[in-house]
TrEMBL record:
Keywords of the record: ATP-binding, Kinase, Nucleotide-binding, Transferase
E.C. numbers: 2.7.1.12
Pathway: Carbohydrate acid metabolism
Any Pfam family: SKI
Top-level taxon: Bacteria
SUPFAM superfamilies, alphabetized: P-loop containing nucleoside triphosphate hydrolases
Species of origin: Corynebacterium falsenii
GO biological process, one term: carbohydrate metabolic process
Taxon lineage: Bacteria, Bacillati, Actinomycetota, Actinomycetes, Mycobacteriales
PANTHER family: GLUCONOKINASE-RELATED
The keyword Hydrolase appears for this protein: no
Family: Belongs to the gluconokinase GntK/GntV family.
TM regions (residue ranges): none
Protein name as it appears in the record: Gluconokinase
Amino acid sequence: MGVSGSGKSTMGVTLADRLGLPFIDGDDLHPAANVEKMSHGIPLTDDDRWPWLRSVGQWLSEHPCGGVVACSALKRSYRDSIREHCPDAVFVHCVGTEELLRQRLTARDHRFMPASLLPSQLKILEEPGADERAQAFGVDKKPMLLVEEMCEWLASLEAR
């Protein structure tokens, strides 16, 4: 989870490969109307996001042995919506400075998420609470080191 440019997709693909789990980019689950809005620089509303979040939760529930989704899940209510379909969901929060995120967004070619939407995402971001199964990871590290840290954290959850 995390705002655009935080490395969710890159980390998600690498983490899924490392764990031998299926991966999907949450962007691929957005309804066409959401993609259209974002491609025009229009931030999504909660009402826009609910069908998408249901799709994310449903995808996870269809993979009972586990799966990795790159999904912003910016608010607790969004994460709760995903948990309605997949109660055991855990969230790896990819965190970076606004400067780093903006640099990444301007350097990449994304099909519908312009850098101009970053401030709206940062504004609504709710850090996961201590009672959520979530952990923040700074994305200023090398991807393989970051994935190793994520795997260690996930293993610690299984050991509990």
